[in-house]
Amino acid sequence: MEQNPLIVGRINGVFGVKGWVKVFSFTDPIGNIVSYQPWQVKTAQGWQQMTVCESQAPQGGKAIIVHLEGVDTREQARDLMGADIAIFRDQLPDDQSGFYWHDLVGLNVENSHGHCYGKVKEFLETGAHDVMRIVGSETYLIPFVMDVYVMSVDFEQKTILVEWPTEQD
């Protein structure tokens, strides 16, 4: 793969005897994963490009059921168990806010007084807000809420400006 893949899901089960697989989607909404074609699937032989022929999204949960081109038996589907599903950044539509969460991972987080909290390691989904997990000398969990806790995102400076108390406050 010539560019860094974005992991958008994982094959976590088989469904039936005709090669269908259960996919745990990391996208929101979960059905969006099917619209990003083709998929790059990490098989035992390495990354392999695959296309979804059909899909079904059962009500509730994070799993969808898909039939991949060339996967026609339960045994072939079983060989894909645990495989990551990835796409490339250019397969995503432009986000209205100008970025996706993966664009923010690795950025420095600081406040208007120059205190550096650390770097964004990941985002956690909670019921109320998505939360940045920031790791520096300590670990911080800061809700990603624009104009409340997050004041700006500067990709040129690789910095997220936040309003968040420090131990000195």
Task: Describe what you observe in this structure.
With 169 residues, the chain is mainly beta. It has two domains: 6-91, RimM (Elongation Factor Tu (Ef-tu), domain 3), CATH 2.40.30; 101-162, PRC-barrel domain (SH3 type barrels), CATH 2.30.30. It is built from three helices and 13 strands; from the N terminus they run ββαββββαβαββββββ. It has helices at 32-35, 74-79, 101-104; strands at residues 6-15, 20-25, 39-43, 46-50, 52-56, 63-68, 84-87, 108-111, 116-125, 130-135, 139-143, 150-154, 159-162. Strands 4-3-7-1-2-6-5 form a seven-stranded antiparallel sheet. Strands 11-10-9-8-13-12 form a six-stranded mixed sheet. β10 and β11 form a beta hairpin. The radius of gyration is 19 Å and the shape is elongated. The model has no long low-confidence stretch (mean pLDDT 90).
